């Protein structure tokens, strides 16, 4: 028998974090903790307070109430606590005319890596982010995906125990996103705790050990992605109907009457149903009767995206 695994002490403990701008409360008492080797995805609409929370965790702003402990110390008061932190900001924050290596060297020096250790630290950061083969290329000549990875390399060169990425894959193509995900997984393997702020629910579902939904400054739901989805949807499946183009208003009314809702993809409608494939077959027959012959009907497990819609519409939590 294996002994009970001993959980490592948390790297980050934020408790009851409150923050207002003027008389607007942007964070209303948020708790968040992360352990070594854990990937946590922070989700929420624009304006929910995600970046404000990140700034509080980094010690860049002081909470009005509550506390943040990073490796046991308050990063707003104890600069040494910030040494354990790497931040990848949303915008690429590199010197465009310097090479990847020169950029990472600069960040290493700024982060206080002793001069003699800089070359090895820089090499390690480039290996981890798979940017070594572009080491001498000026950053401005790199693709968006390479720039993202170089941005991460700059944030990890001092070997932080917590890496925070604020929307690292906005406007990035799928290959670049997968490359970023691979880097994050490798860091997890090394015991780094990773906090990733993302709008990309597929990314969060695939990558995160835990997710948290921030809504209007409160953490309204938190947990392991698959468990949360299972708890919210039970045996319901998502039925996705793909219709031919040129749906008119009458067609839309028919679809809505069948309980279908439009998705962000044109011509694709969705509904949750505990009747599985049988229900999908009946829906197909019904739509054909209405002259709305589906091009394709898919039945699949509900995802974090379905849960996010529920939470955002305040139907859950
Ligand atoms: N420096 C600031 N001064 C005033 N209001 C701010 C400031 N920063 C953010 N806000 C407001 O606080 C709310 C939360 O912002 P933010 O934390 O950036 O949200 P998110 O990152 O989830 O989109 C927003 O309504 C935003 O307009
Ligand atoms: Mg933000």
TrEMBL record:
Picking any one GO molecular function of the record gives: ATP binding
Which controlled-vocabulary keywords does the entry list?
A: ATP-binding, Nucleotide-binding, Transport
Q: Where is the ABC transporter domain?
A: 12-241
Gene3D superfamilies per UniProt: P-loop containing nucleotide triphosphate hydrolases
In terms of SMART domains, this protein maps to:
AAA
* Record carries keyword Nucleotide-binding: yes
CDD domains, alphabetized: ABC_DR_subfamily_A
Q: Does the keyword ATP-binding apply?
A: yes
**Pfam families named among the record's database cross-references:** ABC_tran
PANTHER family with a match to the protein in the record: ABC TRANSPORTER ATP-BINDING PROTEIN
The name under which this protein is listed is ABC transporter ATP-binding protein
**Natural source organism:** Caulobacter zeae
Its organism's taxonomic lineage begins at: Bacteria, Pseudomonadati, Pseudomonadota, Alphaproteobacteria, Caulobacterales
């Amino acid at each position: 028998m294996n002994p009970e695994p001993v959980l490592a002490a948390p790297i980050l403990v934020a408790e009851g974090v409150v923050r207002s701008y003027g008389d607007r409360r942007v964070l209303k008492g948020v708790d968040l903790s992360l352990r070594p080797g854990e990937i946590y995805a922070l989700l929420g609409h624009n304006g929910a307070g995600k970046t404000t929370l990140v700034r509080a965790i980094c010690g860049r702003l002081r909470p009005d109430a509550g506390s943040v402990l990073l490796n046991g110390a308050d990063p707003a008061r104890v600069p040494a606590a910030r040494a354990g932190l790497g931040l990848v900001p949303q915008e690429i924050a590199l010197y465009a005319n310097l090479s990847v290596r020169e950029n990472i060297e600069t960040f290493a020096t700024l982060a206080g890596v002793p001069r003699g250790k800089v070359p090895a630290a820089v090499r390690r950061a480039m290996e981890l982010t798979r940017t070594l083969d572009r080491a001498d290329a000026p950053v401005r000549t790199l693709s968006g995906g390479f720039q993202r990875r170089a941005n991460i390399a700059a944030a990890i060169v001092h070997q932080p125990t917590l890496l925070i990425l604020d929307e690292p894959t906005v406007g990035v193509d799928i290959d670049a996103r997968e490359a970023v995900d691979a880097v994050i997984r490798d860091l997890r393997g090394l015991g780094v705790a990773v906090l990733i702020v993302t709008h990309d629910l597929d990314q969060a579902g695939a990558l995160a050990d835990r997710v948290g939904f921030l809504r209007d400054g409160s953490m309204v739901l938190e947990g392991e992605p698959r468990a949360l989805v299972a708890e919210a949807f039970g045996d319901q499946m998502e039925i996705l109907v793909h219709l031919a183009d040129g749906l008119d208003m009458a067609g839309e009314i028919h679809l809505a009457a069948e309980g279908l809702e439009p998705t962000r993809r044109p011509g694709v409608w969705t509904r949750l149903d505990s009747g599985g494939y049988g229900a999908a077959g009946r829906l197909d027959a019904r739509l054909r009767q209405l002259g709305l012959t589906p091009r394709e009907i898919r039945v699949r497990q509900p995802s974090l995206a379905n849960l996010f819609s529920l939470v955002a519409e305040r139907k859950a939590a």
